[in-house]
Amino acid sequence: MKGTICVNLYDMLITIHPDNPQPRLIKQMAECLRDGGVIVYPTDTIYGLGCDILQPKAVERICKIKNIDPQKAQLSFICRDLSHLSDYTKSIDTPLYRLLKNYLPGPYTFILPASKQVPKILQSKKSTIGLRIPDNEICRNILDALGNPLLSASLPGDMVEEYTDPEVINDKFNGQVDFVIDGGIGGIVPSTVVDCTTDDWQVLRQGLGVFEDV
């Protein structure tokens, strides 16, 4: 049944090795996401909320947790590689491709014009989308198993320091998500956000990544 909680509340916290993710557990995560599940997962920056972008009910669940409107918020996708990323943005010219290839995978979110393949629930009035390719083995393996991008949303609240420890995250979100992945202690600095919707690329948020035009 779509959008239902996948597991017993007591089984929410699941430990996945950050360098050699266990295939059985990765498969379990992908199956839950396909069924409309919501997870908390590690990236190369901070822990985040995630779901399969093709599951509207799961997107709605994340927006409810964050108390936001999906069509007004600037939500991001996590993709597995550049070819996957290019499916969700309009044509990428040579300078922009070189830029993305130089910085990804890494701690960057690039704001790009959205293509028609972006699910309707996530199409903003600005017709833009944030796209990421994190340098994180757990993310990469989940994306390979799932076959679709993950929605990327920060955990709600201002105290980022609270969200470095998966056990603390598990206590905080018990009953609101299906899984909390323990991939080790997370960071406190988010990704650097770069607006590439025009030829004048601009840093909108300075985060972990250092950005210089290439």
How would you characterize this protein structure?
The chain is of the alpha/beta class. It has a single domain (9-205), classed as DHBP synthase. The protein has six helices and ten strands; from the N terminus they run E-H-E-E-H-E-H-H-E-E-H-E-H-E-E-E. The protein has helices spanning 23-34, 56-66, 82-86, 94-103, 137-146, 166-172; strands at residues 13-15, 39-41, 48-50, 76-78, 108-113, 128-132, 150-154, 179-182, 192-195, 202-205. A ten-stranded mixed beta sheet has the order 1-8-2-3-7-4-6-5-9-10, sandwiched between helices. Helix 1 crosses helix 5 (137-146). The radius of gyration is 16 Å and the shape is globular. The model is unreliable at 1-5 (pLDDT under 50).
Q: Mean pLDDT, nearest integer? A: 90
| CATH fold node name | DHBP synthase
Tally the structural domains. 1
The count of DSSP E runs of length 2 or more, i.e. the number of strands, is: 10
Distance between the termini: 47 Å
Can you identify the CATH class? Alpha Beta
Instruction: Please work out how many helical segments DSSP would assign.
Output: 6
Uncertain regions spanning at least 5 consecutive residues: 1-5
Radius of gyration: 16 Å
Order of SSEs, N→C?
Answer: EHEEHEHHEEHEHEEE
- General shape: globular
Strand order of the largest sheet: 1-8-2-3-7-4-6-5-9-10
Described by strand count, sense and barrel closure, the largest sheet is: 10 strands, mixed
Q: Identify the CATH homologous superfamily.
A: DHBP synthase
